Amino acid sequence: MPEERRVIHEITPLMGKDVLYIADRHKKEFTYPIHNHEVYELNFVEHAAGVRRIVGDSSEVIGEYDLVLITSPDLEHVWEQNTCKSDDIREITVQFDFFMSEDNFFGRNPFHSMYKMMNEARKGLCFPLPAIMKVYSLLDSLSSVKDGFYAVQQFLTILYELSKCEGARTLASSSFAKIAVEDDSRRILKVKNFISKNYMEEIRLAQMADIAGMSPSAFSRFFKLHTGRNLSDYIIDIRLGYAARKLVDTSHSISEISYECGFNNLSNFNRIFKRKKGCSPSEFRENYHKTRVIV
Questions:
Q1: Tens place of pLDDT for every residue, the chain, 295 residues?
Q2: Residue 110 CB: number of other CB atoms within 10 A?
């Protein structure tokens, strides 16, 4: 069994009353290990097709352009060299330290879309190419803005433009990222909370419909409308997120984890995990630990 290891907790260069840290660099390879940090981060990568991006339990090979926002101090992430052959990779990393809350300035109406985006980015938020192109010139020139006020103003414009775009998608699963479920519908929220607390048990459609106070057929339509998934797929994704977390954080056997997360059949767990994550549970654990170092 692999030994338990910890993610590097990066100490940010942001100090005291600093607001932004901007690193704009050209390099030939990615070498920094998997890590997390207290501050928020927007990371842009250009000319790095073939690089593997890991954010929580999400693992994807990126194309020529990649832009990801991360706003959770616990969410580990890394960009790995993988099959990238580019000898001129550009990476712009912006770390920032201003807390967005409904109770402060950023909770006001003009910032509503930004506040919502920052909330979603606790699981890591990946932006589509049209959104990247919309803010490219602002990102490109950000490190050359010498006046701190105008640099912050330009960065806020970048965040605002990104918050208005369509097609951004979250990366890590809620259960892996340890994010409490939130939903506009009180009925759906009750169901999601029940699943989050009881994912290791058998969960039936009729039981969930009863919690929501609806007939099973009406609940099925209602749930899919609100989540974009049917109930069984949603439950499987929640269980897989918890399973991936246990594969990373514990030395429990794959069989133990399978049963702990509500899968009553090991081969079924292996099959579903591979279909959803693109690798077997053992490969996921091995690959994840390859990117870690003991600190």
A1: 333 334 566 666 766 677 888 999 999 998 888 888 888 999 999 999 999 999 999 999 999 999 999 999 889 999 999 999 999 999 999 998 876 666 667 777 888 899 889 989 999 999 999 999 999 999 999 999 988 899 999 999 999 999 999 999 999 988 888 777 666 678 888 999 999 999 999 999 999 999 999 999 999 988 888 888 899 999 999 999 999 989 988 889 999 999 999 998 999 999 999 998 888 999 888 877 665 443 3
A2: 9
79, 8, 77, 5: which is closest to 40 by C-alpha?
A: 77
Integer CA distances (angstroms), 280 to 79, 266, 292, in order: 21, 12, 19
Amino acid type, 25: R
Cβ neighbours, 10 Å, residue 274: 14
177/76 Cα distance (integer angstroms)? 9
Query: Is-contact 49 63, C-beta < 8 A?
Result: yes
What H or E segment, with its residue span, contains residue 220? helix 216-227
Closest by CA to 139, choosing from 95, 98, 169, 94, is 94
Tokens 């060299």 found at: 81
CB-based contacts of 93: which residues, under 8 Å, 6+ apart?
A: 21, 22, 23, 41, 42, 43, 44
- Angle in degrees, CA 158, 162, 164, rounded to 5: 125
Q: How far apart are CA 231 and CA 237, in angstroms?
A: 10
